[in-house]
Amino acid sequence: MIKNSFSQIYTYKNTKLFGLMPNNKAVSQYTLTNKNGMECSVINYGATITAIKIPTANGEKTDVVLGFDTLEDYINSFDLPSAPYLGTAIGRYAGRINNASFTLNGEKVQLTKNHKSHQIHGGLEGFSRKFWEVTSINEDINPSITLEYTSLANEENFPGELNIKVTYTLTENNELKVTFQAKSSEDTVINLTQHSYFNLDGHAKDIASQKLFINAKNILETTTELIPTGNYTELKNHTFDFSSPKNCPISIDNTFVLEGKEAATLYSENTKIKMTVFTNQPGVHIYVGGNCFGQIKGKENADYHPTSAICFETQNFPDAPNHSHFPNSVLRKDEEYLHQTTFKFEKLQP
Q: Which residues form the active site (predicted)?
């Protein structure tokens, strides 16, 4: 375990300088590797996962998530016509909040607006564009890294000072475990998620032929602006019924109501890689995309397009603060928020 104060510099062996933020803060990339050769790389800008590499034949590795080669590209991606949030930690509230407002303890809270009249993914900056401190790294069995960010009271107009920790653990069973923990100085609302884009054929490919299973019988009904109405839509005979594996959709931006801790699976016939998603969250928001509009190149000069990859945004329901029958989104003062999601990778036999 390597553990230093915030002001000290880590000397972790698998670290490299990734770039400088506009305020000259140095952003580093940290790479975890397990005994099987699986890798996960993380930067402390947005607590962002930049690469997940799965060993394949002949000593080669398949990078199964979208990302950029430079910090500048990550920063500039937020100025694209639709920011992709590649690999970032999302907060204080993932998904959309209707009219960027809600009522808490009898008082209306008006948030910042960054999605027409609504808020999405935490507002104008959210947690995805923040500098996160690395507070611990474990190099031993099941290597891990913990990053921490403190969101001051009234940041994006959310009440309460919120301290957040995210730990990425790479197990010897080829699982990437994501654990969010948070505490607030006042009652607030919270909904954190990890926003990696997966493609099991490799990050430069197309997702459309990969097989998707989602453990859900309902999705949230939404308006034309993708705001939940409060109703549920049954998936029987629906286009988005993935209770039996079928090809990924080429366009989707919907929240599925989960039936258990096993949320979803993705499988590639080409690489024989299967990914299973487990979570303690009530929903998974599925989004196919990654488009960089020809303005920014992905890693290794890749051109990311509208069907580059798929997101499994395990989380509470969007707009839950405005729907009393949705799962609770309020974090009371000094209570602990705990979000656990696991991405398990397997190489199936031909």
A: 195, 313
